[in-house]
Amino acid sequence: MDNLKRVIVDFKKLTPEVLKLLVEKYPDGYDDLNVISFYNVKGERIEAVEVLTEDTKYLVKISEKLEVTMANYDEDDYEDFDDDDPNAIPDIPIDDVED
Q1: Strand, helix or coil at 7?
Q2: Which of 78, 74, 71, 76 is nearest to 96 (CA)?
Q3: pTM of this prediction?
Q4: SS3 assignment for 24-79
Q5: How far apart are CA 39 and CA 14, in angstroms?
Q6: DSSP class of residue 96?
Q7: Nearest to 59 by CA among 11, 8, 20, 17
């Protein structure tokens, strides 16, 4: 399991496959116990949640857009897209995110 490829994913690069994995792993959303914190090469603190495939460990950066997208997930919305298409997930304007 330590031989997994490691990929950090920002919301802009989120694919239907990774979004589906997130929703399956965290059906009620994630909490503080699920969050991994680390510093990137620029010294910036990053918070992410982890999902795994057979060969890859994804660390998906946490954001308001991610939370809203996970909460409103419907697999049918992505049936016309490839699983690895980062253009399938629409970018949510932050103004559309309700508190």
Answers
A1: strand
A2: 71
A3: 0.80
A4: HHCCCCCCHHHEEEEECCCCCEEEEEEEECCCEEEEEECCHHHHHHHHCCCHHHHC
A5: 20
A6: G
A7: 8
